[in-house]
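Hi C.,

You asked whether I'd gotten around to modeling the 128-residue construct. I have! Everything is below, sequence then structure, no commentary in between.
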Amino acid sequence: EMEAKMQMRAGEEIAPKVYDYGKNYILMEYIKGRELSKNERKEIIFDLLMRAKLLEDKKIEHEELSRPWKNVLISNERTYIIDYDSASIKEKPRNVSKILSAYLKKNDLAIKYIKHELTLEEIIKLIL
C-alpha cells in the first residue's frame, strides 16, 4: 500500500496513474514502453531530469534511480518513473544527482547540483 500511496503522491506528471490498490496489488495505467535510440538520448534524459526534479520538489526520494534503466519507462510521449516500493520522504532528495551519475557518468555535475553550485537549468545547458 505504501508503494501505491507514494506513486500517487508523485502524481501523473511523473508516474503512471494509480486506479486502485490493496495490500498485495496496484492497478495502474498501462504504459507501452519502448527502446531508447541513440539519436534521442539527450532529449529523453532531459525529460527524465525534469521529472526527477519534480519528485524532489515533492520531497520524494526514489531510492532506485541510481539504476534508472530498471525504474524508468519511455513511451512515445515522455518518461515515467516507476517502482516506488523503496521511495521515502526526505527534506533534500537526490533524484537528479542519481540520474546524472548513472546515465551521464557526470559525478562532477551531480556533486555541484547537490552543493547548489549549479541549477538543473545550468546543467541541462551544459549537457545539451
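If it helps when you're writing up: The mean pLDDT is 91.

Thanks,
B.
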